[in-house]
Amino acid sequence: MLLKSNGDIIASDVEYARSVFSQAKGLMFRSSVPDSYAMIFILSSVKKVSLHMLFVPFPLDVLFLDGDKRIVKTTYLRPWIGTGDSGKKVKYIIELPAGAVSRSDLSVGDRVMFNEH
């Protein structure tokens, strides 16, 4: 479960990408994800990262989080050709269906909560 710090649910269907392979693959080759979905990337260290949408045929909202799980940047990625970067060093990346940031009223500085297991 992915929650806002006030307890509101952002996503109930959560998948974790911990390994280098799962992080490189991300959501490639999937045709869609449900509105309640989130993929959480747990990086091995705090670092600047970039993302691409090659072989991802649907748009995404992305949250970049610091080590305290605070949003340092949000971005929208277009299907197939979108690219984005964290701009700052981050520990977590969360990919959500397009529109999730506005639906959940998320913005830079907000804290999100999730288990890392």
Describe the fold and architecture.
The protein has helices at residues 20-25, 100-103; strands spanning 2-4, 9-11, 13-17, 37-47, 50-52, 60-65, 71-77, 83-85, 90-97, 112-113. It has 117 residues and is mainly β. The chain is globular, with a radius of gyration of 13 Å. The termini are close together.
Largest sheet, strands/sense/barrel: 5 strands, mixed
How large a portion of the residues is in β-strands, by DSSP E?
Answer: 35-45%
Mean pLDDT: 96
Can you tell me the overall shape? globular
* Adjacency order of strands in the biggest sheet: 3-4-9-6-7
Note the run of SSEs as H and E: EEEHEEEEEEHE
Low-confidence region ranges? none
Number of helices: 2
The CATH first-level class comes to: Mainly Beta
CATH topology: Jelly Rolls
Gyration radius over CA = 13 Å
Mind telling me which CATH architecture this is?
Sandwich
Distance between the termini: 11 Å
* Classification by helices and strands: mainly beta
Outline the fold blueprint:
Layout: E1 2-4, E2 9-11, E3 13-17, H1 20-25, E4 37-47, E5 50-52, E6 60-65, E7 71-77, E8 83-85, E9 90-97, H2 100-103, E10 112-113
Parallel strand pairs: 3-4
Antiparallel strand pairs: 1-2, 1-10, 4-9, 5-8, 6-7, 6-9
Compact summary:
The chain has 117 residues and is mostly beta strands. The protein has two helices and ten strands.
List the main descriptive attributes of the protein structure presented here:
44% strand; 9% helix; 117 residues; globular; 2 helices; five-stranded mixed beta sheet; Jelly Rolls; mainly beta
